[in-house]
Amino acid sequence: MKIGLKLSENNYFKFYKIKIMGNKILKNVRSAGVLLFIGCIAWSCASDQLGLPPIPEGPEPPQQAYIGSDQCAICHSEIYNSFQTTGHPYKLSKVEGGEAPVFPFTILDYTPSGYDWNNITYVIGGFAWKARYIDSNGYIITGDDVQWNFETMEAVPYHADEAPGTKMYDCGRCHTTGWVSLDDGGVPQDDLEGMGGEFFAGGIQCEACHGMGALHKASQSKDDIIIDRSAEQCGTCHYRNEDHTIAASGGFIKHHEQYDEMIAAGHSVLSCNDCHDPHNSVKHGQTAGIVTNCTDCHTDTNNKHEIRGASCETCHLPYASKSAVKRTKYQADVQTHIFKINVDPNGEMFNEDGTLANGETGVTLDFVCYQCHRDPEGEGGNPDLPYTSRKTLEELSSYATGFHDE
Fold this sequence. Notes:
By secondary structure, the chain is α+β, with helices and mostly antiparallel strands. 21% of the residues lie in helices and 13% in strands.
């Protein structure tokens, strides 16, 4: 008797590949189960009659878990290599072996007074704007010379009114991958009492946005990984206030609030990914992070300032936000993403106590125009320009009103 099935010790039947995915339920599971049950009975009978070995048990599906960006790099090397030149992976870097962490474009050789790399456990930032430090007990170091600003190459105060060893690190939601706060059942990372939670890895690694990767690594299916290109995905970190009002302090918008800024005015219908590639940077002379330019959509825009060196971004993304450095009264070091310009000469950028920005009405003319022009008292202006005229807000408003329509 011949059986039309070639068998070997390691391969004698291939059933279905069943994939277990989160909360997804296979369709027609009852019918499939009945067919599988009948097939198993038939095979069992044949095995008994022919003396074949029993059906082998398939491997257990992997448990969903973090695997680390280096595992992602095995298949996605090009994306991984470009991502490593962005600021995301360096939001929190561990100090190991008494040596400063290594960053792709900056060298951090400064430590606050009274500290060295043997009693500093982590560095917060370090890729571009600034670096802060965490002490040997897990507390953020506070004092007069404890924040290093890369633009000015100087140390400045950070929460100098708070005693050293008292400011807990609770920034992990947007600075780490796999953060679980103490309130949510986490334990202090590395058993450091000043840590307000635990995490899988420091910095925003691949799995911070794409989710745990163990199942995806096993199946290599897009169904087993998060691919979310919505603005809301970026907005899980690029906001501050729970009600998505735009937080401000010291005469500027606080840094990393691009999501709140975008939904307030101007480009609320767009996703961040419409303009940005999140795997590439726009810092340190890199340009691959911008995938869509303003003129790709706004084809009929008449930029009268182009001959003076101003681009769309100069006016519509002024430096009205601050991360580390205040350059002038009207310019800090982060470009706002409100886009909309308020041409009212009496427009107010902030609420009465300066804690919120009025994003819906747009960026006021002082932040826009006094990047190059000077105000009547001589404040503002661009020191790289040989001469910049003084203008009142009324004069600037008269010129800016209807600017794109003329």
